[in-house]
Design brief:
Elements (H helix, E strand, L loop, with lengths): L2 H32 L16 H18 L3 H20 L6 H4 L2 H16 L6 H7 L1
Helix pairs in contact: 1-2, 1-5, 2-3, 3-5
Length: 133
């Protein structure tokens, strides 16, 4: 079996892996804000009823939906826009270059979520299970 055949066979599964891992990594942002795990000193005195507190709720709920693969396209699209707004509100004012303004991760999440919104959840998801029924 050549590399192209292997890549073609595994491509849908790796889409699921990308979705799950992106959700797990993104979940940390919300849990750090609201559950104080992992401990991030910047969030020590976070007010739950603030813009950052609301962002944490979106991060937790959106991440869990992505991990499960439930309402994936809509969730990923919303999270993509959420990360675009986060970039332009928080990072862009600090300078033009993402490597200097700390916005690389926000941009990367934005486009990974946009890709997932377009490509779908992959076969290992609740959305795929519902389609089979």
């Amino acid at each position: 079996m050549n590399l192209d055949a292997i890549a073609t066979a595994w491509s849908p599964r790796l889409l699921s892996v990308l979705r799950i891992m992106s959700g797990l990594l993104f979940l940390q942002h919300g849990t750090a804000k609201h559950l104080k795990f992992p401990v991030v000193p910047m969030f020590a005195k976070l007010e739950p009823v603030s813009l950052i507190g609301a962002a944490g709720v979106i991060e937790i709920v959106g991440s869990l939906l992505l991990i499960l693969g439930l309402f994936t396209r809509t969730t990923a699209f919303v999270l993509s826009g959420f990360m675009a707004v986060a970039y332009f509100m928080s990072h862009a004012p600090r300078g033009f270059y993402p490597i200097l303004n700390g916005g690389e991760l926000a941009i990367l999440y934005c486009f990974v979520f946009l890709y997932i919104a377009a490509a779908g959840p992959g076969p290992w998801s609740y959305d795929a299970l519902q389609k089979k029924r």
